[in-house]
Design a protein that fits this description.
alpha+beta, 4-stranded parallel sheet, 7-stranded mixed sheet
Length: 854
């Protein structure tokens, strides 16, 4: 038994945990609860290293909190709807449901192989009718509460997936999943009124103290509260006006043009009679709707021939349709002030428009202040602005609002960058939206007794677009109100709909009547520790916060925030490899030597690239199933947890996992091989006489317990493992067969095993058993440190000469002043500095510093 036989040990202990029902959670109001949740996976069919890291982190928290006496809920499920399954069905000619369920079964086995402390009795899959029937009911309640509505609007269209994307799903002008350039289309869409909660969502961020600052900032910026003014610009020779929202009403006197979004109602009316303008609008629509794409594009405009009248001066300015103005933000119209906005300046220079500075730095000569190639966006005083001249920017803003309101030309206003959430998707593999379109009655909600509205299984993917649209029978139903022929809604929900409430379903997953019992949800929610990638900072996390508030308003929940604590782990990275033709290679195809890298198949040179996030496209992936089959789950977990702080990216290396494997086996040999010998003294009392070496290990044990406990509370998992390894080194160095030594060695190994249990549960359970303990670690409380043994008997004191560090020495705690001075003066470096002279004085700061003044 000189090597850890994980192939025997690990399945053995997983079987025991299952037989014990060790991780089943039940509500117990007499106990403090702790809800640990990692973001649930999409069932692609195979886990990846990101999964291993994410779920290993959560498992450490769950096992640690359970040992600390908490009633722990640690569930698992599957984010199972989505286009990948639909695309796989097309490619493999298999139904998405069949493909998805097979993948779930495979990934469930893989995750169970990691030894996770999951309550599998609460497993959910969002593609199952018993799950999505409840979100259909929620949607009907949202309709009643005015939180869901349908309207025609311009949307982001992914031409590859042929579906609508939310603004949050457009990254750099491209679809978040396909990478295809996004287009604009006008479609009738179902929306959820997230904007109703904009202020709440923003203000509550300050109370989420256990969330990363970066995530809170990202949400704050996305909600984007802006204070400013709405200004009404009358149009010359027309009996209508254009309303503009601006955050800089102070710059009104610097106006040189007015610009409309390509999809502004006025632009559309004008384009109906102007083919050139219609062509310009069509070109703008191909640009997509994302701010990033528009920001990078050349600023272009079309002169509509209209003129806007300045509300204060009566001056007239050209009205353009412009590709950089978004209908989705503000009012879809802006007044351009080129001197103080770079985008406006670029536009004005292109079209030869005036550039009038109206804000100058406080120390600038206003008469000579001019704008070059860069707009001035700093603070200062107003110039060239009539009654505003000399005012600060903030005072000028208020003065403009006051005059606008007095003149009836505008008002102070607040707006948000946040838009309502468009949840309609034109695809098959999603939750059906439970409404019916009747020619006579209009939009009619499905009856609650008819839920769930399930997907048909006999669909064809031969035609492009949504299979539900061209299914021969599924969409044809009788209207629930008049009984006449009608059609079901063929759009399905955005998959973020499912993930916005799944954490609540875990609280009561077998409830058929309700999505969850309110009392059970009230016991478990909010999630105490949520773990996942920062890429979900805006999408999933913001939607979940909105959903929780909406469910509260509809009587489902009593909480407002879904996640009390959030931890965002780093990515798992690996070097990249290319052959001489520039093709990516898998790490398994590359042989690394001291001289470089070569291809295993033919020895051809290989270019080693930088380390990047593991991705299938670059082939720099390592299959965790292979690692577990080679080294065991505990070795994989140990490496993931010990190599770097969990919030940072982790570099996967063979050397790293080999190092973890060596430590696992060193610990196995040290404990398992010795357990039948001197260490077989389970329960032996502390000897009356304990020598210094044994006492030192005893102190180390309690300091390690204290340190590791604090580290695990603070997510310093790599530091905790380092402390445990230091303790194992100290125990291994303790040699001899004396009673106190054997006792201290057993205490040390037992402590190492207990502290390492959340990280390597299989290994430590087996070692604990071999040390003679009948009760598994999973059923034991966390060890407690003896405060008396945390106090150091000695302290390290710095020795300075004229304030410069010359040495450090260990002294007994609270040593006498004379002893500390004598020990300091005896140091070689101090003697050399004194050069035979007496010191002028010696300053002793007890237990900290001795400063010798020459």
């Amino acid at each position: 038994m000189s090597r850890y036989d994980f192939r025997v040990v690990e399945p053995h202990w997983r079987k025991i945990w299952d037989e014990m029902d060790a991780f089943r959670a039940t509500e117990d109001p007499a106990r403090d609860k702790y809800y640990v949740l990692e973001m649930f996976p999409y069932p692609s069919g195979r886990i990846h290293m990101g999964h291993v890291r994410n779920y290993a982190l959560g498992d450490v928290v769950a096992r640690f909190k359970k040992a600390r006496g908490f009633n722990v809920l640690h569930p698992m499920g599957w984010d199972a709807f989505g286009l990948p399954a639909e695309n796989a069905a097309i490619e493999n000619k298999r139904p998405p449901a069949e493909w998805t369920r097979e993948n779930i079964a495979a990934m469930r086995d893989q995750l169970k192989g990691l030894g996770l402390s999951i309550d599998w009795s609460r497993e959910i899959a969002t593609c199952e009718p018993e799950y999505y029937r409840h979100e259909q009911k929620m949607f009907l309640d949202f309709l009643k509460a005015g939180l869901a509505y349908r309207k025609e609007s311009w949307v982001n269209w992914d031409p590859v997936d042929q579906t609508v994307l939310a603004n949050e799903q457009v990254i750099d002008g491209k679809g978040w999943r396909t990478g295809a350039p996004v287009e604009k289309r006008r479609l009738a869409q179902w929306n959820l009124k997230i904007t109703r909660y904009a202020d709440e969502l923003l203000e509550a961020l300050d109370r989420l103290e256990r969330w990363p600052d970066k995530v809170r900032l990202m949400q704050r910026n996305w909600i984007g509260k802006s204070t400013g003014a709405r200004v009404r610009f009358e149009l010359a020779e027309r009996d209508e006006a254009v309303e503009v929202f601006t955050t800089r009403p102070d710059t009104l006197y610097g106006m040189s043009f007015l610009a409309l979004a390509p999809n502004h109602p006025l632009t559309e009316r004008l384009a109906a009679d102007d083919p050139a303008l219609a062509d310009f609008v069509a070109e703008c629509n191909r640009l997509g709707t994302s701010e990033e794409a528009i920001e990078r594009a050349e600023k272009r405009g079309y002169d509509t021939g209209l003129e806007a009248i300045h509300p204060f001066t009566g001056a007239r300015f050209k009205v353009f349709a412009a590709n950089f103005v978004l209908m989705e933000y503000g009012t879809g119209a802006i007044f351009g002030c080129p001197a103080h906005d770079q985008r406006d300046l670029d536009f004005a220079r292109k079209y030869g428009l005036d550039v009038t500075p109206v804000v100058a730095p406080a120390d600038a000569d206003s008469a000579d202040f001019a704008i070059g190639d860069e707009a001035y966006v700093g603070p200062g005083r107003l110039i060239n602005s009539d009654f505003l001249d000399g005012l600060s920017v903030e005072d000028a803003k208020q003065a403009v609002v006051t005059r606008l309101e007095s003149d009836g030309a505008g008002t102070g206003a607040v707006t948000y960058r946040l838009r309502d959430w468009g949840v309609s998707r034109q695809r098959y593999w999603g939750c059906p939206i439970p409404v019916i379109h009747c020619p006579a009655c209009g939009v009619v909600p499905a009856r609650e007794e008819d839920l769930p509205v399930t997907l048909p299984e006999d669909v064809s993917f031969e035609k492009p677009g949504n299979p539900l649209d061209h299914h021969p029978t599924w969409k044809h139903v009788a209207c629930p109100e008049c009984g006449e022929p009608a059609e079901r809604e063929t759009d399905t929900f955005d998959t973020f709909f499912e993930s916005s409430w799944y954490f609540a379903r875990y609280c009561d997953p077998q409830n058929e009547r309700l999505g969850f019992d309110q009392d059970k949800a009230g016991y478990w929610l909010p999630v105490d520790q949520y773990i996942g990638g920062i890429e979900h900072a805006v999408l999933h996390l913001l939607y979940s916060r909105f959903f929780t508030r909406a469910l509260k308003d509809c009587g489902y929940l009593d909480v407002e925030e879904p996640f009390a604590g959030l931890f965002t782990q780093g990515m798992v990275c690996h070097e990249t490899f290319r052959d001489q033709d520039g093709k990516w290679l898998f790490p398994s195809e590359v042989n690394r030597t001291g001289e470089g890298a070569s291809r295993v198949s033919d020895g051809a040179p290989v270019e080693v690239g930088r380390s990047e996030k593991m991705s299938k496209s670059r082939k720099n992936v390592v299959d965790p199933v292979d690692i577990v089959e080679t080294y065991g789950a505990d070795t994989a977990r140990l490496f993931m947890l010990s190599d770097s702080p969990p919030e940072r990216d982790l570099e996967w290396t063979e050397a790293g996992v080999e190092g973890a494997w060596r430590y696992v086996n060193r610990l196995w040999r040290a404990v398992a091989d010795e357990a039948d010998g001197p260490l077989a003294l389970q329960g032996a009392p502390r000897p009356e006489t304990v020598g210094e070496s044994a006492a030192a290990v005893e102190r180390a044990v309690h300091k390690t317990i204290d340190g590791v406990t604090g580290d695990l509370e603070r997510f310093h998992f790599n530091r905790a493992i380092a402390r445990i390894r230091e303790l194992s080194n100290a125990v291994q160095e303790l040699d001899g067969e004396a009673a106190d030594v054997v006792w201290a060695r057993r205490l040390g190994w037992e402590t190492v095993v207990r502290l390492l249990n959340p990280m390597t549960p299989h290994l430590t359970e087996e070692l604990w058993r071999r040390l003679g303990h009948p009760t598994p670690l999973v059923a034991l409380e966390w060890p407690a440190a003896d405060p008396a043994l945390l106090v150091e008997d000695s302290v390290t004191v710095a020795i300075q000469v004229n304030g410069k560090l010359r040495a450090t020495i260990d002294l007994p705690r609270d040593a006498a002043r004379e002893d500390a001075e004598a020990a300091a003066l005896a140091q070689e470096n101090v003697q050399r500095a004194l050069d035979g002279k007496d010191p002028r004085k010696v300053i002793v700061v007890p237990n900290r510093i001795v400063n010798v003044v020459i």
